[in-house]
Structures are given as C-alpha cells and as structure tokens.
C-alpha cells in the first residue's frame, strides 16, 4: 500500500445502504485506491494524520465503485452493540475482506457475531510509542493491517488473546480514571498529578495530559463498556471524568 491513496471527505451521513448509519448521523471520510476502501469518522483523532497522506475525491466517485472493493478498513469509533450492527450491515453489502478498529468493544464478541471480519486493530487511542495492537485471522489480513499502519507511520503488535478494549486502551483508561478520581477528591492539581506520574514512575505523559491526547469521550466510552460487560467497580467512571468527557 503506497501513499497515493485517495481521501473522500464527507460531512453528511454515509449513504452506503445502512439504516444504522442513518440513525447514527455521523460524518465519514472515505479513502480509496484501486480495490481498497477506508471508512473513518470525520472527527477521528487521526483525521489530520490521514489527511497528510491521502488526496481528496468525491463521495460519489468512491461509492460508484463500491462493489469492486476487495478490502474495507473500518475505523468507526463504536461500542460493541453498535459495532456489531454496523459490521453486519457492512459485510452484508460487500464481498470485500473487512478489518475493523475494535478499540471500544469486546473484540471476541464482535468477531464471534461478525465472522467475516478478518482482522482487528486498536487505533483510536493515542500512543506515545506509535504502536498499535492488532489481531488477524490469517497472514493476508495481517499484511493488510501492517501495510495500512506503515502508511500512517505506525507499527503493529499482534495479539491472539483479545481483551475488552485490547490491552493498552484498557490499562491507560483505568490510570486516567484514577487521576480524575484524585481531582474529584481534591487530592492534587492536574499539573501536580501529571508531574508525579512523569517523574515518579517515568511515564512519558501525565494521565491528565494523556487523556487530553486520546480524547476523554473515548476513555469514558471504553470504561462504560468495560463496566457493563464485567460489572467490575474498577471501571466505574469518575464524575469529574464524565463531566470533562461530556458524558452526563
């Protein structure tokens, strides 16, 4: 996969054929080159990065050849239930191989319900190391993932033991949540919390600034998903984090 992929910016609902997409009322970017299509929400954290590598074309041009795609990379930031519905619609309307970002989901549940999905990534959560957790059912799917990551200057770490929210997103979300509990209890200022974690345990970023880099909405979404699936109180979202993430 080279850097000459084409970007299709769309501020309206994706009209591919999905009642679900109409209901979500989300805008998407479509990128295509030859037989590959990438779908990403237009306010995704990687929007700016992707825009540096892919040229713009019209939505109509991309969708007019929709039936010919051999590979679809889905980067929609959805939780398990909506992701399953979205992917079921996606695989119903294409014969292409599908790889999906499952950062906010229970990947095993998604893959069990969507057996035509051949690979998964956790691309939504910013990582200072530029590493991305991946899963592939076969070598061809892994190559598709690695090629795509190379375009956006990231590298993959393959996992076969999938967890809810993968490994890194789940762990960093818990750390950030604990930092917001500390803010809630007035134990320290945001600056002091960040300094303590950077200098005390050698983190590259403090948890407050790390959360800002990722996007608090995604952290809240993942913690809510974890709490609903596991019923483990460790994943209960702090009030302060809910407020900051606009998740009242």
UniProtKB/TrEMBL annotation:
InterPro entries: 3HC_DH_C, 6-PGluconate_DH-like_C_sf, 6PGD_dom2. Pfam families: 3HCDH. One of its GO terms (biological process) is fatty acid metabolic process. It comes from the Bacteria. Gene3D superfamilies: N-(1-d-carboxylethyl)-l-norvaline Dehydrogenase, domain 2 (1.10.1040.10). Residues 165-238 form the 3-hydroxyacyl-CoA dehydrogenase C-terminal domain. GO terms for molecular function: oxidoreductase activity, acting on the CH-OH group of donors, NAD or NADP as acceptor. SUPFAM superfamilies: 6-phosphogluconate dehydrogenase C-terminal domain-like. This is 3-hydroxyacyl-CoA dehydrogenase C-terminal domain-containing protein.
